[in-house]
Write a structure and sequence with these properties.
104 residues; mainly alpha
Length: 104
């Protein structure tokens, strides 16, 4: 395993963690939007459409969580089996920090 491969796996973990955060924020934002619409006009047709958008967001969360756990496990395995030469690299340190920061 090269430092380049280690860097790629680290960046995958970081990207998926950001994606998970985005979907969680979107879930909260969308639910607030729906609640506001219901408070103003509970019979509004747009509420149904906004609920569909919320459902799409909720449907994505399990997939992102699954991929995040897989990426975390993959990077963890690589770090555990890393060659001693790689352990002294900047990429290795970044991988360890990413594992600590994004523990699923």
């Amino acid at each position: 395993m090269s430092t380049r491969d280690l860097s790629i796996k680290t960046n995958v973990l970081k990207r998926l963690s950001k994606e998970q955060g985005f979907y969680n924020e979107e879930k909260i934002r969308q639910q607030k939007r729906i609640d506001d619409m219901i408070a103003k006009d509970p019979d509004n047709y747009d509420i149904k459409k906004q609920r569909e958008v919320l459902e799409e967001t909720l449907d994505m969360l399990p997939d992102v969580e699954r991929r995040l756990k897989a990426a975390h496990q993959d990077l963890s395995n690589v770090v555990t089996k890393a060659h001693p030469d790689i352990k002294s690299s900047k990429e290795y340190e970044e991988a360890v920090q990413a594992l600590e920061a994004y523990d699923p």
